Structure formats: structure tokens, C-alpha cells
């Protein structure tokens, strides 16, 4: 596969110009005469290990054995055998003498003895890790002996290396040879390079070079003895010096002692097969081995087993060695999630393990997997991502959020499940600051305009809270067009009292963005009306808001009277303002105990979708106010519960293009065009109509009753109002005993004039109806010959 290359490096012999790898510092130990170096690829800088072996001439016995090891390692592939990458042989000259060096490049590893010192494990955690590593080496030896009919010949501590994921791998194949037990006529040595093996590692028959007895023994006899020597070295912590030391069993675990003695039997035929060691030893039955083994065969498990395992994994990970969890389990878990073999609860375990990493390691090992998961079609995965977004959201870069994450999250705004719409809305508190102005104005605000008329009152309330929090991330022109209309025209007229309260507090928290004319002509008139609201909490907040905005107007008056025409508008110095924004944040992010269920709960379950403040005075006066959840016993419970899909078909689909409604009214969000969607349900039509000025039809015209489950909020709307998402939004109608205005009059009001709605109503008298005929109307019209009379006859006949 690879040709041996020979190059000449002038005199020094320290470099190799044709080797596509950089040779680094050597490790202090390696097997045999090899030197183990750290190294990197010249192409991409990826880490590798480089083994070098030098000899004075081409016929050197060590070089011949090294070439055998390179050839064997290149052809033998197994998960627990060192992975070969590249090899070359170079001859260098120093004066009149030459030196031949054999280079072998493998995956990055380090000697096991060095890794054990680095980890410093003790007690149960050490025994669990040793059990896992010994399990891997036993599988590698079993593969060679039983499947390949090969004899390694020198299994010991020096022939085992460790990968960055803490896996143990077998190497040092210089002595490896085929087992020719069936060749009874052979009398020569079966292991050509057995002289490389230290005498302390040789079983009795190999020490005596009794090749007849060796050929009559099972293929695993020599390597089973070597595995026993390896067990002694890792548990005693010292290198084996004499064969007699194997009798010292004080450091061997009791659960492994019997198998250890069978591996070192003096009779080759009675030595334990390494495959039996893997199957029978109770020593390998521990939490670490079972956990890693489950992860490696995850694709063979059913959904129930996966779900049970991943729900226990966060607590189990705390009991396992931390380094092994981060370097072994974490990559396995990330890979399982990325390729779809892991269930949604696995994300909780991934984030918990990720919390033990540094910020740099988290961005490298965990974050790329999370970004890829946003494109998943598994609804349960997406719910879990949104529920835990506060744990990783700050680590996402603005470019990744704007270009990759948001496109997938935005589909949740239009999902049929109110639970998923709510989670999507709450996630914007973390992600919105990372979005570009183009995305905010062109997409996010259009979705929020729809959510402000959502059929779920909790979602409408939290949409108002979110707008108050992201106001600082909007440009000045967008704030002018959006905030006042969103808070006054919609939030303050919502039928849900916490939504009205949220609108008042959002106005107060964003007061620094309004000029004095907006406060005087648009904000105060709408807030004053709520001082007589039916809800005491809303009234309390309204009075405090009126005082706050009047104080701003008063400050402006005092400064202009003093000749300061550049008087700034804002209340950054008022202590109450800081608490308002804090209340909005905490109420939006308060979720209670995160749900571990992958299924979507019903909207009117015991845990409400949102949390909003119900105590206005405490929320506005005390910065550390703890928000309370909305009591949904009378409001949320009465709402019709939409069906929560349980299939894992994604978040629901949304068209790529955002189309404009045919209606002309935009209630102030002039360039925030609504998203085109199917005809709203009766419940949604009721909510939309309730936020407009209520109107009634003349007695002579039929009335369309909007379906609702709350009789006290019943609103009668026309078909045009149901189909018009934006509609004409005017000021609330005065509560008088006069006859309501005609709907045609309401539809002609100017959206930009909040006073037009409270102007004097037109005369309530009606002109006499015109004749049904098409003449001049000078003479009474005759009864029609077709219309009413024929219909009456037909109806009477029926």
C-alpha cells in the first residue's frame, strides 16, 4: 500500500523531509526498542503518534521484527487494536556511517503507564476503569487467538496504549505470528522473534522453547499467560521483574482472583480462554462497563430501553469517574444524538456532562451537536432543546443563531401545539439579542404580531413581556412603529387581565424610548382608562403608570420652562424602572421544574404555560419581586384546548415566503406585514374581535355569533372582522347606554387618530328604506312578484 521511501538529510539525521507529519517530543516509555513520539499532521494539524525504530544496517534483527510489526498492524483491524495510518523507512548518513530508521504513524495514543499516573484514580473508580480497560484488551486478544488464529506473544503493560477517549488498545505486533498447531512435522520455532520477549513474561513452555508442546497447546495458551502478567502489572502498579512475583496476589481484586489464577495455570491446556474471561467474570459487572457497553450497542436497543437508560444517565454520570465521562461517554452521547439513535432525554444528560467542561471545550465538543439537533424532525428533541436553551444559549455565536438556529426555531411560532409556541416564544429572550436587525424586523416581529392575538391568553401575555425585553435591540425606527401600538392598541385592550397588566408594565419599562408628545397623546389616554378596570391588579398598575408618566411630563415642563429645549425624555433615574424590566425577564424565564417528559402536555394542565406578575405594587416598587404564575382556574381552564400532536414530524410547517394580508389596516405596525395563514378558528376569531372596539349590527341584519366557551366574554363579529387579522383598531368604546355604532362607522376610523373613536357619534335615527323597485321612488312600490311572496308560499307549503 505504501512504498518505502529513502531520503538523505544532510548529516544531521534529525529530520525527514518526505514524512507528511511533524515529529514532536517523545514519551518516556515505549515497548521494546521503539521510541514513541507525539506528532501532528502537516495537512490539518491533527494529532498523531509516531513510532520510530533505528538500526545500523538493513539486516538488523530489531528492524526485521519492526517490519513484521508494521505489516501485521497494517492488515489487522479491530476496535481494540491500534489503528495504523502510515509508515516509511529512511536511511541517513553521518560521515562514513549510515543508519536506517523505520517510522510508523498511528492514531494519537499515549502509554498506559503514563495515562494511569495522569488520571490518578483511586478506590472504586480505579477498579471500574481498570475493569473497562481490561475488558477491551481481553477482547483484542480473543480476536487474535480465536478469530485470526494468531499469537501476539508479548501481552504486557508496555504493549497497551490509551487513546484520547481513554480506550485501551493493543499494539507491539513485532512478535506476532500465525499459530501452526496443525503442522505436526514442524520442529522449528513458531514465533520467529520470540527472543524479543522478556524472560519474566514467558510461560514455562516458551522459556524452554518446547515448540512441540506449544503446538499441542490451544492457540490462546501463550497470550492467556501474558494477559495474567498484564493484570498483575496494572493492579500492583509496578513492572513485572521476575516470574515468581506473579504469586503475589494481594493486589488482585477478589472477584478477579480465580480467573487470574486460571490464566496463569502451569498446564497450557488448562489455561483460561480469554473469550471465557469476558463472558464469565463477575469483575466486569459494574456501572461503568455496563454504561459504555449500552452506549456502544445503542442501535440494537428498543425505544423503551433507551428512554429508561437516558433518564437515569444524568444521575449515573455523577457516580462515574469524571474524566472517563467527559472523554468517553460524552463523545458517544453526542454522536448518538447527532445520528438519531438516542432519545430526547439524552439531551439532558449531554448538557449536564457539558456543564463540567470549560467554555472552550464546551464550544468544541457539545455546541456543534446542539446546532445540528435544531434541524431534527423529532418533536421531542426540539422541545428538549427549547426547555434547556438557557444552559447553552449564551454560548451560541450571533452568526450561528442568525444563519442556522433561528430558521429552524421560527417554525415553532406557527406550531399547532400551544405548548411548543410558548417554548419558542420564551427562547427568543435568549436568542433575540443575537439576531440581526434584518431578521428581527423582517421575520421575528411578524411572528410576534401574530402571537399577540393568539388564542391562548398566556401566550399573548408573554409576547408583550418579550417585546418589552427586546426593545433595546430594536432600531429607533422600528421602536417608533411597533412598541406603542403593540402595548396600547393590543395589550391594554386584551380581555385577559394579566395581559393588560403586562402591557402597562412594558410601557413603563420602555418609557425612555417615547418622546413627550407620544406620552401625552397616545400613552396616558390609554392608560388612564385602565384606572377603572374591573381587575384591581390592573387598576393598581395603571395608577402607578399614570404617576410615572405624569412625572416625566412634569420634568419636561420644568426643563422647558427653564429654557432647556433639549430636555431628555426618560426615567432612567426613577428606581421603579429597573424593577419593571427585571420583572419582565424573570416572569418570562420562570418555568418551574423542567419537564422531563418528551410528550407534549395539554395546555390546561396543572402547570400553566406562562408566569406573569399578579401583584402590581410589589412588581413596580420592589426590584427583587418574585413573579407569580397566572391563576388559570377561571381563564385558562375555560379556553378550548387545542390538540397537542404527539407525532415526531417536526414543529409544523411554515411557508418560506411571508405574504401580505389583503386588508389595508396595519394597526401601526406599518411594515410588519402579517404571515398568511388559513382562516382562524372561531375561538381565535373571538379573541381578535375582543381586542377591537365591540360593535353590533342593526336589528334588521343577521348577526354572526363567534363560538366561545366563556359566555361572559361573548363578542359578536362580522365575517369581515373574522378574516381580518389586523383590522381597524380604534380606542375602546365608552361604556354608555347609547346605541352602539354601526360597524361601517367603525371600519372608517383612522388608525393613527386615537381620538376619532371617542368623537360624537352620528345620529342614531335611520332614514326610511328605499323602495325595492328601481324607479325614482315617486310612487309606492308594488309588492314584488318573485322574491318574498314566492318564498313565503314555499315556506308555508313546507
Automatic annotation (TrEMBL):
<feature type="domain" description="Protein kinase">
    <location>
        <begin position="2"/>
        <end position="357"/>
    </location>
</feature>
<dbReference type="InterPro" id="IPR000719">
    <property type="entry name" value="Prot_kinase_dom"/>
</dbReference>
<dbReference type="InterPro" id="IPR011009">
    <property type="entry name" value="Kinase-like_dom_sf"/>
</dbReference>
<dbReference type="InterPro" id="IPR011989">
    <property type="entry name" value="ARM-like"/>
</dbReference>
<dbReference type="InterPro" id="IPR021133">
    <property type="entry name" value="HEAT_type_2"/>
</dbReference>
<feature type="repeat" description="HEAT">
    <location>
        <begin position="366"/>
        <end position="404"/>
    </location>
</feature>
<dbReference type="InterPro" id="IPR016024">
    <property type="entry name" value="ARM-type_fold"/>
</dbReference>
<feature type="compositionally biased region" description="Polar residues">
    <location>
        <begin position="734"/>
        <end position="748"/>
    </location>
</feature>
<feature type="compositionally biased region" description="Polar residues">
    <location>
        <begin position="697"/>
        <end position="711"/>
    </location>
</feature>
<feature type="compositionally biased region" description="Basic and acidic residues">
    <location>
        <begin position="656"/>
        <end position="669"/>
    </location>
</feature>
<feature type="compositionally biased region" description="Low complexity">
    <location>
        <begin position="778"/>
        <end position="788"/>
    </location>
</feature>
<feature type="compositionally biased region" description="Polar residues">
    <location>
        <begin position="607"/>
        <end position="636"/>
    </location>
</feature>
<feature type="region of interest" description="Disordered">
    <location>
        <begin position="734"/>
        <end position="798"/>
    </location>
</feature>
<protein>
    <recommendedName>
        <fullName>Protein kinase domain-containing protein</fullName>
    </recommendedName>
</protein>
<dbReference type="InterPro" id="IPR051177">
    <property type="entry name" value="CIK-Related_Protein"/>
</dbReference>
<feature type="region of interest" description="Disordered">
    <location>
        <begin position="594"/>
        <end position="712"/>
    </location>
</feature>
